[in-house]
Amino acid sequence: MNRSLRAHRDVAAGAVALTTPTLAVAAHALSSGMAPGSAGIVLVAGSGLAAGLIARGLRSLPAMALLLTAAALVNHLLLTVASSSQMPMSHDSDASMLILHALAIPLCALLIVAADRLYDIVTAVLVALGRRRLPRPAGVHPVRIVSALPPLAGRDLVGSNGLRGPPLPQ
C-alpha cells in the first residue's frame, strides 16, 4: 500500500479521535457549568479512539456527520452515567447541550472532510515535485567538506578510561 494513502486514513482517524471527546467534554462543561470528572473523560477518550478507527474508511461529508452524531450520542450517555452524582442536569442544560452539538457536529464534519481533501491535494503536489528532478544551476558544483583535524578513530584519548561518571582515584 502507498505510504501516503496509509497516512491519509490516519489523518482523518486522528481528527475524529480528538474531535469527539473534545466536543463532548466542552458541550457538557458549557451546559452544566462544570467539567466532567476523570472517569467520564477516560470513557469519552476510549469512545473517541473507537470513532477514530471507524473513521478510517469514511470520506464523505454525510458519513462523517453521521459518525460524529453517533459518537456525540454515545459520549453524552457515557458522561451522563459517569457523572450522574456530580453534575446536576436540568432540561435547560439539555437544550443548550443539544444546540451546542447541533452547531458543532456539522462544523467539525465539514472541517475534517475539508482537511482530508486538502491533505490529498498537498500530498499529490509534493509527490509530483519529489519525482521531478530539478536541474542544477549553471556554475554550481557539489561541495566537499574537508576537516583540518586528524581523525580520532582508533586513538586513545587522554584522560578517557571508558567509564561513565567521575574520574576514579589514582
Describe the structure.
This protein has 170 residues and is mainly alpha-helical. The chain has one domain. 65% of the residues lie in helices and 0% in strands. The protein has four helices and no strands. Helix 1 packs across helix 3.
Q: Main beta sheet, described?
A: none
Unreliable stretches:
none
Structural class: mainly alpha
- C-alpha geometry: flat
Provide the number of structural domains.
Answer: 1
The helix content, as a percent range, equals 55-70%
What distance separates the N and C termini?
Answer: 61 Å
How many strand units?
0
Strand content of the residues, in percent? under 5%
Element pattern in H and E = HHHH
Mean pLDDT: 79
How many helices? The count is 4
Q: What would you report as the Rg, rounded to the nearest angstrom?
A: 27 Å
Task: Briefly summarize what is shown.
This protein has 170 residues and is an all-alpha fold. It has 4 helices and no strands. Helix content is 65%, strand content 0%.
